[in-house]
Amino acid sequence: MATGIELGAAVRAWRERITPAEAGLPAGGDRRVPGLRREELALLVGISVDYLVRLEQGRATNPSPQVLGALARALRLPPGERELLYRLAGAVPPPSGSVPRAVPRGVQLMIDRMSDTPLAVFTAAWDTVQWNPLWAALLGDPAALDARARNLIWRYFTAEQATGSRVERDALHADAFEREMVADLRRAADRYPDDRAVRELTAALREANPRFADLWRRYEAAPNSPSRKTVVHPDLGPITLDCDVLTLDGSDLRIVLYSAEPGTRDAELLERLRHRSTVRARR
Asked: 2-88 has which CATH code?
């Protein structure tokens, strides 16, 4: 069975990758490979060595959720590889705990180099966790908002519908945006059922906004897609930009960035805004 063979190959690769010290075991004597021996992994997982051999050879199919969970813990698998383990076994990955908020170091380095692009990082529930100065100059500084208002979905369905937004949307684009946001929040709620903040946010939105409550009851799945948005800046006026959303595998974070077509008036306005934000930051 192809799935069993792939599962076995993955388990063996992960076993040979992790060191005894990483697994909480003494290094012991000489080793032909730096990873765990089958006997050590079997002990950590609570299965027989014979079963582990059959699993790695693709002869043991349909391991129980308990065995898969123990394997993931013993092998110290990060979220993405943990999900892969379950999928290779033909099982549904169990929900995780809380919505991740930490920005990986490699991603942070990439963000720091993109100072010419309005950019912000959001959680799976659309809480703003990071932004650069150009984002703040274009769309307003999230630092001026309280914790709840830094959630994009809450801000849109409550404050922005009452006071207005810098982003212009006609009825068609507003409908698509609302469906995408509600679908994203439902995915976050399903994926992280133990996250109290997500439950409280969802309950508050259902109470505060009938439109959100209606969309929540529809159980729709609306994928994010690239779009063009017009941002009405209080000093520079309308700036039309491409908006892209990048999802980071493993951390479940989203990077939202805006860009302008080179050589256009919008690119010129964005450059002026960048220059102004740079001068302000140096003062």
From this structure: 1.10.260.40
